Amino acid sequence: MFNLQEELKKLPDQPGVYLMHDKQDTIIYIGKAISLTKRVHQYFQASHNEGIKKAQMVKQIARFEYIVTDSELEALVLECNLIKEHRPKYNTMLRDDKTYPYIKVTLGEEFPRVLFSRQMKKDKSRYFGPYTSAGAVKDSIDLINKLYGLRTCSRNLPRDTGKDRPCLNYHIKQCAAPCQAYISKEEYGERVESAVRFLNGEYLPVMKELEEKMLAASEEMEFEKAAEYRDLLNSVKQIAQKQKITHADGEDKDVIGVAKDGEDAVVQVFFIRNGKLIGREHFYMKMAVEDSRNQILNVFLKQYYAGTPFIPKMIMLPYPIEEAEVLEEWLGNKRGQKVHIRIPQKGMKEKLVELAVKNARLILSQDKEKIKREEGRTIGAMKEISNLLELPQVVRVEAYDISNISGFQSVGSMVVYEKGKPCRSDYRKFRLKTVSGPDDYASMHEVLTRRFEHGKKEREELKEKGIEEVYGGFTRFPDLIMMDGGRGQVNIALKVLEELHLDIPVCGMVKDDNHRTRGLYFNNVEIPIDKTSEGFRLITRIQDEAHRFAIEYHRSLRSKGQVHSVLDEIPGIGPSRRKALMIRYASLDAIRAASIEELADTPSMNMQAAESVYRYFHETGNML
Question: Quick one: pLDDT at residue 506?
Fold first, then answer.
């Protein structure tokens, strides 16, 4: 048993990382400290106040562990890695976990290629980026390959030279075909050097060359070729215009701004490479109301640069941060060169930081409106449904559907929506065990019984362990059950709940003759719904999702060859004959009622197989 007071006494006065666990033994917070004993003790002192979020976290701590390091820098690195691995609930988290695209020139190859890459490795290749748009990177690579006729194949050259015919790119004049030795290594190398200069921003020679070729083709009346050169020239001009010069020093910098509004925060990053602004990206942060902008920046730097392969020479911030020196040391070690964190006070650099902050505010303002609209589609729609059914509160909804093909291999689906959004981790699939034939009511009775019996059993096991709080899965019961159908399906659900002594509201999602959602069946009354309302749209989404989930499960079983019916137990009936019988007859009852002659007349069947099927259903006493 973990004794908090005893374990607090054992904490060393050394730097390290501490991990807080809840009673489920889930890591809920990770932090670093110069002195573990001083920092961890603070959480459990009544006079210490770190805000509401930390106070809630402390109440849930069941135990803690710690890892001692030799320095604060080592603790910082370890903290970053552990947070990225475990993503604890109470750490301020960077929501995005993106990898940015690079343009990779494989200079380690004798005939280099220009490739798309998500990682920057320590190899002999040259990397350009990172860029914020994968589409723009791919367009740029296509353009470079067209301009310089570089190969895109993965052949091992010169080993494989002449082994195969040249590819289509050679015939459409987009590759010089080094695979056939149609171009020398030296001439090909010059083209690669030109491509590297282009990627470094030397556009004027390329533009001049393309313009000359365009004019020459036009004079020779080769208008299609002239139009191709014109299009390439326009592409180069567009790329050149996007590379806005920001500073003449040609350095790599990240310019970072932050905006905060209550619990919402956005961090904006401008990427400056070789003195040019190549793009920007924004990131959302989960945080507490009391977190300051300085704290947000501190957390962002650690989490973002722990996951990106490229570290710029300079990082410019709008506000000073507490751990600047330690972060500079850590980032410098990752880069292999000195990294500077600066807070500009004047000139172009200050204006760039102000621009980043302004953009962060703009994104935050725009997205708050988007969030309001999203809440209308989700939480607001759920509230509309609860008001329509006169229920006090509906947060969690479970919807059910049955899928089969004429009774063959019936399956059930359970989809879950919480606060108007799908909770896919709680979705469940059921393969029917006790029902044969196309009996949707009996199938639904089995699915619901298994679901809630399982849930009751899990709840009892948790109570025996002294755990009262229910988190999800089968242990969490819904505020509302939604059935795909009307009175019949609702009555089946109510019967199961009565048998299990559960009191949960049940409604049916009724469809019209055109199989479109029409209304809700609740308390023996069909309730019409405004078809323009968000509540109606949510009901339609839930119904469609339950149907989709059941159909996909059924389809996956069929595609994997897992569908098994009583036909598989009949000697002489393999997959082909079983499929033929399923196509011709509507159900197993229909197969059982058929004569030997009718069965033999089925495609793929013969008289011997027909007699085998007939005997199985009539002579051996096998019933459906």
Answer: 95
pLDDT of residue 99: 60
pLDDT tens readout for residues 239-266:
655 444 444 466 789 999 999 887 788 8
Pairing between β-strand 253-261 and β-strand 314-316 as defined by DSSP bridges = parallel
For position 437, what pLDDT does the model report?
Answer: 64
What DSSP element (H or E) covers 508? strand 506-511
**pLDDT at site 446:** 92
Rounded Cα distance between 228 and 239, Å, is 17
What is the model's pTM?
0.45
Kind and range of the H or E element at 277? strand 276-286
Token code pair at residue 369: 């409106």
**For the chain, which ranges sit under pLDDT 50?**
242-248, 407, 560-564, 620-624
> What residue ranges define each of the domains in the chain, with the CATH number in brackets?
4-91 (3.40.1440.10), 102-201 (no CATH), 253-374 (3.30.420), 383-559 (3.30.420.340), 566-618 (1.10.150.20)
Tell me, what's the pLDDT at 173?
A: 79
pLDDT in the model for residue 313: 92
Cβ-Cβ contacts under 8 Å for 584 (sequence gap 6 or more): 602, 603
Runs of H (alpha helix) within 406-510: 440-464, 487-499
Q: What is the DSSP string of 510-543?
A: EE-TTS-EEEEEETTEEEE--TTSHHHHHHHHHH
Q: What is the pLDDT of residue 80?
A: 77
Amino acid symbol at 419: K
pLDDT at 246: 46
- The two three-digit tokens of residue 160, written as one number: 């494989």
Joined together, the tokens standing for residue 319 give 């506000």
With CA atoms as reference, report the closest residue to 290 among 84, 539, 55, 513.
55
- Annotate 316-340 with b (16+ C-beta within 10 A) or e (fewer): bbbbebebbebbebbbeebeeeebe
CB-CB contact of 247 with 255 (8 Å): no
Q: Are 360 and 267 in contact (CB under 8 A)?
A: yes
At 562 the pLDDT is 43
Taking alpha carbons only, the member of 366, 131, 344 closest to residue 257 is 344
Q: What is the mean pLDDT of the chain?
A: 83
Terminal-residue alpha carbon distance, the chain: 56
Distance CA 539, CA 525 (A): 17
Give the model's pLDDT for residue 6: 84
CA distance 147 to 459: 67
Determine the 3-state secondary structure of 134 from DSSP. Answer: helix
The whole-angstrom separation of Cα 315 and Cα 323 is 14
Helix (H) or strand (E) run with residue 238 in it:
helix 223-242
- In the prediction, which pLDDT does 28 show? 93
Instruction: Give which of 247, 134, 126, 245 is closest to 197, Cα–Cα.
Output: 126
Smallest CA-to-CA distance from 386 within 283, 257, 478, 296 is with 478
Given a contact cutoff of 8 angstroms between Cβ atoms, the answer to whether 419 and 379 are in contact is: yes
